TrEMBL record:
Organism lineage: Bacteria, Pseudomonadati, Myxococcota, Myxococcia, Myxococcales
Top-level taxon of the source organism: Bacteria
Keywords: 4Fe-4S, DNA damage, DNA repair, Hydrolase, Iron, Iron-sulfur, Metal-binding
UniProt source species: Stigmatella aurantiaca
Biased composition (Low complexity): 76-102
Protein name as it appears in the record: Type-4 uracil-DNA glycosylase
GO molecular function annotations of the record: 4 iron, 4 sulfur cluster binding; metal ion binding; uracil DNA N-glycosylase activity
Length: 317
């Protein structure tokens, strides 16, 4: 015996009722039930079976269920669409920073792989040409390039033979040098004069200058920014003179010219090279006054310099 199926309208109502119940269950998270779930499932199953057509019969087409209206969208402030940014051009590779090393007293010095070339483009100096000391001094002017200018009395540029074969480079002016505007005229200067004479030279034969041209307050060590401000003028002085040998007196002169943070106790006595010029690092005369026992080592360093010039020299001071 075949049971006639219910009308398509009734089937649609059942499906809609089931859909609403499932939506409610989804919203409530299954935490509450209108009726016993097992009983409801059995009833719904029996009702659905009764609606199935007999075997072999074409199934009745149920009208499609109307979709539930979507909840209204939450109002949102209108944001104008920004224009798409242009694709940035490829960035140039950032140059690698030179390594930084600490000197013996904690001073940080840039230490590139090799010393930079002579600066030939100082203002007032024609690039690529050998400047004169007068041109460099005029370019230095009444220098205000670092904070040392606020406490100085005189710029201490340098003194001696402008075509000297031998140049001595010290650290910076002291009190007496600041008053007179001449390098190495105090107690350390007297010792340096004796050292030069013992080598078979006079002060008029050589050229003497410092890394910084103004006196650091209280004769303190020059600071990195002060050295950086003065260094182009020192290098230009050496370019103008073009000596055969440079004697670097103390760690600041040696480390600045060589771009090497090795302590002076290890640098001294070893021939180095600055822009093709032989360079001998040795102790500063001020240090030798405080440590007289080191004079023997300094004299040994100077004797190596004397051999370059074929000098016999006198007794060490």
């Amino acid at each position: 015996m075949n049971e006639s199926p219910e009308s398509p309208e009734a089937l649609g109502e059942v499906v809609e009722d089931l859909r609403r119940h499932l939506l409610w269950q989804e919203e409530s998270g299954g935490r509450a039930l209108l009726v016993d779930s097992a009983k409801l499932a059995a009833e719904r199953s029996a009702s659905l079976r009764s609606m199935l057509p007999p075997r072999g019969a074409a199934p009745a087409k149920a009208p499609p269920a109307e979709p539930a209206p979507a909840p209204p969208p939450v109002p949102r402030a209108e944001v104008p669409r920004a224009a798409a940014p242009e694709r940035p051009a490829a960035l140039a590779p950032r140059p690698a920073s030179p390594p930084v090393a600490a000197s013996g007293n904690g001073l940080l010095l840039d230490v590139p792989q090799k010393a930079p070339p002579y600066p030939g483009a100082l203002p007032g100096v024609v690039d690529g040409e050998r400047p004169t000391l007068d041109e460099i001094r005029r370019t230095l002017g009444d220098c205000q390039r670092c904070k040392l200018c606020t406490g100085r009395k005189n710029i201490v540029f340098g003194v001696g033979n402008p075509r000297a074969d031998l140049v001595f480079v010290g650290e910076g002016p002291g009190e007496n040098e600041d008053l007179k505007g001449i390098p190495f005229v105090g107690a350390a200067g007297d010792l340096l004069t004796k050292m030069i004479q013992a080598m078979g030279f006079s002060r008029d034969d050589v050229y003497i200058c410092n890394v910084v041209k103004c006196r650091p307050p209280g004769n303190r060590n020059p600071e990195p920014d002060e050295i950086a401000s003065c260094e182009p003028f020192l290098r230009s002085q050496l370019l103008a003179i073009q000596p055969k040998v440079i004697v670097a007196l103390g760690k600041f002169a040696a480390q600045t010219l060589l771009r090497d943070s090795t302590p002076i106790t290890r640098l001294r006595g070893q021939w180095r090279e600055y822009q093709g010029v032989k360079l001998m690092p040795t102790f500063h005369p001020a240090y030798l006054l405080r440590s007289p026992a080191e004079k023997r080592k300094a004299w040994e360093d100077l004797q190596q310099v004397m051999k370059i010039f074929g000098k016999q020299g006198g007794a060490r001071t």
